[in-house]
Amino acid sequence: AMLQVLAPRFAQARVKLQTLSKHPASAMAEAYRYVSHGWPLLPPEIDADVLNNVQEAITCELQLQVSYLNAEQQCKLQHLHPLALINRGPTSYLLATSGRYQDPRLYGLHRMHSAQIHYESARSPKDFKLDDWLIRHMQFSDGGKIRLKARVTPNLANILRETPLSLDQSLDQKSGVLSATVLDSMQLEWWI
Predict the structure, then answer these.
(1) What is the reported pTM?
(2) Are 67 and 74 in contact, with CB atoms under 8 Å apart?
(3) Of the N and C termini of the chain, which has fewer Cβ atoms inside 10 Å?
(4) What is the mean pLDDT of residues 179-188?
């Protein structure tokens, strides 16, 4: 659904590049590619009307009523107060509060069978900050940092020299000992 929304812009860009066929910028489309860092997963299908209404509700800070397929595979009506749209890998989520839960929760857009805008203002939790929520919940961390020390293989050392874990990273060439200040998180444990 997101690509369908962007399709006219991509078509316009292709037409513009074709008119500039002799310009060096026209070769860029053939010379650039994106390769995912992880295993490539296909995105789940999202209903275009659902996506449109979710985006409008977020932009206008309005409430939504959605028909949502929950983890038990039951379709239930949810009254939501949208906060943000979050993409994690190929999946898009609505971050929102509902009448039942005042703490923000994620709702997969692909699990929404319908989304109707309620023209009442959505409310946001007191002192809510999206970036703080993302660190705590999407990186599975309380935001605390640790000093990581580890011995790494020569191949990993080469990668970490080019793409460091942090600005204060140090890597001893001879011993392979890495030292860096990083978020103390479940993602770090998975990476290790």
Answers:
(1) 0.66
(2) no
(3) C
(4) 87
